[in-house]
Amino acid sequence: MMTSPDATPGRPATATTRKRQGRARDIGVIVIAAAVVLAMLAISGQVNWPAALIGVVALGTFTFFWFFGTVDPAQETGEDEAAAEIAAKRARAAQERSFRSALVEALSEPTMYIDAQGKVEAANAAARKQFRFLGADPVLSAVVRRPELLDAVAAVRKGEGPQRFEFVERAETDRYFSCVAAPLGGGVLVSMHDLTDIKRAEFARVDFLANASHELRTPLTSLSGFIETLRGPARDDPEARERFLEIMQGQADRMRRLISDLLSLSRIELVEHRPPEGEADLASVVREVVEALEPVAAERGVKVAVTGLDNAVMVTGVRDELAQVVQNLVDNAVKYSETGGVVLVDLVSGVAPDAASVRAGRQWAEAGHMSIVTSPGAARGLSAALRVTDSGPGIERQYLPRLSERFYRVDPGRGLRPGTGLGLAIVKHVVQRHRGELLVESEPGRGSAFGVVLPMAKATNT
């Protein structure tokens, strides 16, 4: 049996080898079939044996010359080279794709590579999380809805060079991105840099200056007026001097509280887009805050009643920030409750999200209701619900949507209460950062109730 020089042990057969092997099989089948037919004719007496042997030899000679005479070595060598070139191109393409995938995965910022067909060939974990897509090689326009990004990719594919652009992702907490789309290997590489921290710092600085300058103007004006009076008409009046100094002390305390609240609000807004990772015992936080505010409540003739603190209530959160939430809610309830009234603080844990929302802020059928913060994080797993109810005058339904605005206070007809007007704004942003819910229900003549729903710690949910 003849073997082709192209087919050696341990090496794959080339196109020429495979073609020759196929022809050899075909010729072998033809020769054997012809020999069998001639032998049967000879046995039957229709053909004598010498004629049959001559026929077999003639057929073999013809097929031999046909086999070698119709094989064009140059043509088959060209076919082999073309096949080898195609295989090399495929290998290079696979190697380049593997390199692009490794490059994209190595980057920490959201990064994608879009091939020439407009498909997302590679995307790292940050990009998949950002655009919430799964599967292999999805079409870019099917998973990304940002016109800025789509236009930039289209411009690069038209040969307009690298494109720089920015976009804002609107959500519970806005996120800001600075992006670059650049040509790479026949496709487009898109990288996104998260500017959220920088933007938030900038906005917080602007807001802080605007709010501070506006809110500090009143007490500073008051202090300046009293100082001028003490230097003039009241210089020799001890009684007036003592009265003015007391008022000035009150204005100075107001400025201190205002600055403290503004700083707290600015710090929370800077990290609001990052959910907390630690755990805190909400029952312990409530207990400590209530104990600290009991002297203030007693001075106003208000009693604070607490339920649900028998066991630890572990939630996902930052203890100090949760303490601010509880303190602002309980302090507001004490301030707005009438003398002889009762502030009810109720804590429940390990309930489903819907039941927690009802427990926190959906108990009065005739009251006005408002969800100030509704976060997707509160819809997963078990939850804890904190409800703080006052015995104050209540709030009309039309005022509820503005309660968490900075410096907004529903004081007309309710009696002016001391405060900065930032307490509920701080509560709102802390709850938002903790991916919880903030609810309020209020009924004039009955009082108001503010509720907070927080996700339980992971260990509690398992």
Oligomerization category of the chains in this entry: single chain
- The CATH architecture of the largest domain can be given as 2-Layer Sandwich
The residue fraction in helices comes out at 40-55%
CATH topology label of the largest domain: Heat Shock Protein 90
End-to-end distance, in Å?
72 Å
Strand content of the residues, in percent? 15-25%
Structural class: alpha+beta
- How large is the count of helical segments? 13
Q: How many β-strand stretches?
A: 13
- Give the mean pLDDT: 79
Overall outline: elongated
How would you sum up the major sheet? Answer: 6 strands, mixed
Secondary-structure element sequence?
Answer: HHHEEHHHEEEHHEHEEHEHEEHEEH
Contiguous uncertain segments of 5+ residues: 1-11
What keyword list fits this structure?
462 residues; alpha+beta; Beta-Lactamase; Helix Hairpins; 4 domains; 13 strands; 51% helix; elongated; disordered N terminus
Quick rundown:
By secondary structure, this protein is α+β, with helices and mostly antiparallel strands. Helix content is 51%, strand content 18%.
Q: How would you describe the overall organization of this protein?
A:
The chain is an alpha+beta fold. The chain folds into four domains: 57 residues; 89 residues, PAS domain (Beta-Lactamase, 2-Layer Sandwich), CATH 3.30.450; 78 residues, Helix Hairpins (Orthogonal Bundle), CATH 1.10.287; 186 residues, Heat Shock Protein 90. The chain is 51% helix and 18% strand. It is built from 13 helices and 13 strands. The strands form three sheets. It has a six-stranded mixed sheet, with helices on both faces. Strands 2-1-5-4-3 form a five-stranded antiparallel sheet. Strands 6-8 form a two-stranded antiparallel ribbon. A hairpin with a 5-residue loop joins β3 and β4. The N terminus is likely disordered.
